Amino acid sequence: xxxxxxxxxxxxxxxxxxxxxxxxxxxxxxxxxxxxxxxxxxxxxxxxxxxxxxxxxxxxxxxxxxxxxxxxxxxxxxxxxxxxxxxxxxxxxxxxxxxxxxxxxxxxxxxxxxxxxxxxxxxxxxxxxxxxxxxxxxxxxxxxxxxxxxxxxxxxxxxxxxxxxxxxxxxxxxxxxxxxxxxxxxxxxxxxxxxxxxxxxxxxxxxxxxxxxxxxxxxxxxxxxxxxxxxxxxxxxxxxxxxxxxxxxxxxxxxxxxxxxxxxxxxxxxxxxxxxxxxxxxxxxxxxxxxxxxxxxxxxxxxxxxxxxxxxxxxxxxxxxxxxxxxxxxxxxxxxxxxxxxxxxxxxxxxxxxxxxxxxxxxxxxxxxxxxxxxxxxxxxxxxxxxxxxxxxxxxxxxxxxxxxxxxxxxxxxxxxxxxxxxx
Length: 424
Hints:
With 424 residues, this protein is mostly helical. It is built from 20 helices and no strands. It has helices at residues 3-10, 16-36, 42-49, 53-81, 83-101, 107-123, 127-137, 142-155, 161-171, 175-194, 222-234, 237-251, 254-267, 272-297, 302-319, 327-338, 345-356, 361-390, 394-410, 419-423. Helix 2 runs antiparallel to helix 7 (127-137), helix 12 crosses helix 18 and helix 13 (254-267) runs antiparallel to helix 14. The longest helix has 30 residues, at 361-390.
């Protein structure tokens, strides 16, 4: 049994491209779920070991930062060792990191496991992987596929949090890393048996396109591929506009809300499981919003979409601290903010394809995602430090909202003449 055998069994029923999307949707969902699990552990770890929020947030910040920095090299590694082997390496690191975290009793151990191992392991499951899947397997519906895989990337950070928070409350915080490790290990045989490298490797063409030969693996050094992609991007103003705006995306999503919304709600007397359920609701609406964003990206100007996404997100973040944190106000925030959680990704990927071309887009978009993770790392650490210093998250949410309004203006400046892509 393998991808070619599975493809023959499904011939005439469904294009194998959608099987690949299903597998990668699940893998990315689980991968980012592992990465985000420490968000429910801030308070339990404070109670268990006496660590403060800044110390724990530092490990989460390192996790987010490394996930972004590894992304471009993971995208380049796909070209050298293949998509399936890259995913298997990522899952193995995640499993080892999560199991090691269950035995952490000192801050450096938390940093080494959930900070370094999980951070590096999650890097290959970032937007670069979603872009590679969409560009390899689809000619039609490419924006929709990026939206689906991006939705799994964001929703995975949120939808498991009520379960994980409940486990931490009833069975102890160690139950959280053990559960996520078991989920990751269960995915390894699925990836081995089902994930195919490209349509040509199983005798098919991409969805919406003609048959093509198998992709030949590159013999180039992945390090040099990643760095050359960075060099090509840095020479373009459009790269810096995309990088900066996506840094704001990270600053206002996984770094701030995914990491600190639960303790922010606890500060207002809301139980941890209820707060985690709020994040899960955001994840559900993100799944809807980001998938819809992919559909819209196939049809409308990506710059205009980004303008509205960043602008509306900024307003929601600036309003939240001035609500009464009642069930109604938090529910309205979950719906409004959730629909816009990472709806920014499909148009950002589309613009990267437009400006830099499909060949280099997975690596270059991974460098743009580095900006997202840097912004997220700054927010994760900065909001924790601000809470320690002032006793409140008010300043962090206002700063994040204001940054979103600036990003809304930046994206309108991205070039409409894709000179670099044409040169390719």
